[in-house]
Specification:
single chain; alpha+beta; Immunoglobulin-like; C8orf32 fold; Jelly Rolls; eight-stranded mixed β-sheet; 34 strands
């Protein structure tokens, strides 16, 4: 009997000693009504607060580690869009062991309160639910109501994690509390000054961050808004492990090295290599053939099947997932004796790669780099063949790893400055006494332009192909008829490096000219197709970052009808540029004209030589962009002599 009592007392003491902070955390008994309409007239919702508590504790009877994540937020929904957005409660379930608790409180503008506990929430209809999410829908919420949500998840312990603090709506107050328990916490903030401070929670060391008046993340043209969100990343490792950032990087290199740089070649690879790898062939051609063969013959599956990681299964079934397909590449490249490096990086539109703070959650992209050729393969991008890095990885940093497991960090740069270009020669003639315009056009697209066009051509459905054809034949011209249309080099695989995607077309339209006194007005700018524009004068929020460096070279030849002269030619001249600190033009739009042999010849050159431009010089960048749009809206007059 005494032993039983002792065990009960011991068990009780253990339970008490592991009392978690989240169990005592609760919302206020009264849900206060807050007037927010005055300050947020243009918003659909406003967050009063958004609090996150990360608590790491030791397991009760073993060396296990438990991680509790508590989220508590309160939002006022100011219109129907806000209601539809926040009445759907979406909870990520990645690495979740147990859904510990949830409760929701709705307060309408009259102060009427409706509460849901965990049992009631679980009875609500789930829609589009998946293993990665729980999706609760609360119906009947009215405008100007507030929703308060408090839930706790028990998750698998992970040394590394991060939290996005900036949302699509303004948040008046945000608090992030990290209680590392038996681990040592290191944190780093992004998008704002690091104001994390140390504190004590129930005599335990903790780190706390408080932010006030977080603006909504706003998407802008030529920006990576999502990647620019305010966030905090953290690492919680055991002090005795003595981990630093270099050790984390070396660990991941050690883990992937056998896959990325195989020591043994699979027998089936020898069979394939005898067909694909030609003796005395240059490295570019060999890599190009390997890349095209894999992408043309192997399927990428998104099924959760462990066999998709097994090389035997992959080579027997010609099926893999988007990560393990890299094994086929590294096996064939090793068999061919080709020098390569593996690059781990991130999509720059979603995450900025930070060499100084290891966070595996952002490392989602792999490349194979050939240093002797300064070219890349993107194994999981069907549309890409050997060349420059994909545009959404360009400009981000990456870790470059070689066969000896040596590594270095570098920005992923474009080695070929003239990689992405569009060349056009447009000849304009007239029929029906200037009522009908005939546009005969030759176009060359290279680099990322060509990759995108080939992808659209190969993977689009019939409806999208119609839109694509319109884009390739001067989009923006109304009532046009396509007389002739031909594409050359449209296949994804091209024997030669950066082969142009070529389009020859002839169209006619009666919408480009308009009768005026003693002549016709020609909307000549329309022949270059719709252009981006930045006419709206607003304060720039994000740094300027374009899709990729590119250049346009156009020649427009207009046959002047007999008996007519052209007026308003000065409207065809534009010259706007953005100079580097060294005085070089790195961004410009320039158009010139001349009359030659009864023809009007217009030349246009537009280029963007770098990926990024200074935010405080946004107006200069904007002027260049708008010059192209201004030219598109330009017209000239044909007047009888």
């Amino acid at each position: 009997m005494k032993n039983i009592v002792f065990i009960i007392i011991l068990f009780t003491n253990i339970i008490n000693s592991y009392s978690q902070y989240y169990k005592n955390y609760n919302w206020e008994k009264q849900s206060l009504l807050i007037d927010s309409e005055g300050n947020y007239k243009n918003e659909s919702s406003v967050g009063f607060f958004d609090n996150t508590i990360i608590e790491i504790v030791s397991g009760k009877f073993s060396n296990s580690i438990i991680k509790y994540v508590t989220n508590h937020y309160k939002i006022k929904m100011l219109d129907e869009f806000g209601v539809s957005k926040h009445s759907n409660i979406l909870i990520p379930m990645n690495e979740v062991v147990d859904f510990r608790d949830i409760k929701v409180r709705i307060t309408d503008e009259d102060g009427e309160i409706l509460e849901f506990d965990k049992k009631q929430m679980e009875e609500l209809h789930f829609f589009e639910d998946s293993p990665n999410y729980k999706n609760f829908q609360i119906n009947g919420i009215k405008e100007n109501s507030t929703i308060e949500v408090l839930y706790t998840l028990e998750k698998l312990y992970n040394i590394h994690d991060n939290k996005i603090l900036q949302k699509s709506y303004p948040i008046q107050s945000s608090k992030f509390l990290l209680i590392p328990g038996p681990t040592k916490a290191i944190v780093k903030t992004y998008g704002f000054e690091n104001i994390v401070r140390d504190t004590l929670i129930n005599d335990s060391n903790a780190k706390i961050l408080k932010l006030e008046n977080i603006p909504p993340i706003v998407d802008e043209e030529y920006a990576t808004a999502i990647a620019n969100r305010k966030k905090i990343s953290y690492q919680c490792s055991f002090p005795e492990d003595n981990m630093d950032q270099e050790t984390y990087w070396r660990n991941i290199i050690s883990n992937i090295n056998p896959i990325m740089f195989p020591r043994n070649i699979h027998p089936k690879i020898f069979e394939l290599s005898s067909e694909l790898i030609l003796k005395n062939d240059d490295i570019y051609n060999t890599v190009n053939i390997i890349d095209d063969y894999i992408k043309s013959n192997f399927k990428i599956s998104d099924k959760n099947n462990s066999s998709l990681n097994n090389l035997d299964y992959i080579l027997s079934n010609y099926t893999s997932n988007d990560f393990s397909i890299i094994q086929v590449y590294t096996q064939l490249l090793t068999a061919a004796g080709i020098n390569y490096e593996v690059v781990i990086t991130a999509n720059r539109y979603y995450n900025k790669f930070d060499p100084e703070f290891f966070d595996p959650n952002v490392l989602r992209e792999f490349l194979i780099y050939f240093p002797d050729q300064e070219k890349y393969i993107a194994p999981n991008r069907l549309e890409y063949r050997i060349g420059e890095a994909p545009f959404d990885l360009l400009g981000n940093y990456g870790i470059y790893i070689d066969r000896l497991s040596d590594f270095y960090f570098s920005e992923i740069i474009q080695s070929d400055e003239s990689y992405s270009r569009i060349k056009r020669r447009i000849v304009i003639d007239f029929q029906k006494k200037l009522k009908k315009v005939i546009v005969d056009e030759y176009q060359e697209y290279t680099g990322h332009w060509a990759t995108n066009n080939r992808s659209l051509l190969q993977f689009s459905n019939e409806e999208d192909l119609i839109v694509f054809k319109d884009y390739l034949t001067a989009s923006g011209i109304e009532n046009k008829k396509i007389i002739d249309f031909k594409i050359t080099n449209g296949e994804l695989f091209q024997n030669n490096y950066n082969s142009p995607f070529i389009v020859n077309s002839i169209i006619s339209s009666e919408s480009l000219t308009k009768k005026i006194d003693n002549g016709y007005n020609l909307n000549i700018g329309k022949v270059i197709g719709k252009q981006s524009e930045l006419y709206e004068e607003t304060e720039r929020l994000h740094p300027i970052e374009i899709t990729y460096p590119n250049q346009y070279d156009y020649e427009i030849v207009v046959k002047i009808p007999k008996g007519y002269i052209i007026k308003d030619l000065d409207k065809l001249s534009f010259n706007k540029s953005y100079l580097s600190v060294m005085g070089n033009k790195i961004c410009k739009f320039e158009s010139q004209y001349k009359i030659l042999d009864n023809k009007l010849v217009i030349t246009i050159q537009e280029f963007y030589k770098t990926l990024r431009y200074q935010k405080n010089r946004y107006n200069e960048f904007r002027d260049v962009i708008n010059s192209a749009s201004d030219f598109y809206n330009t017209s000239i007059k044909f007047v009888k002599k």
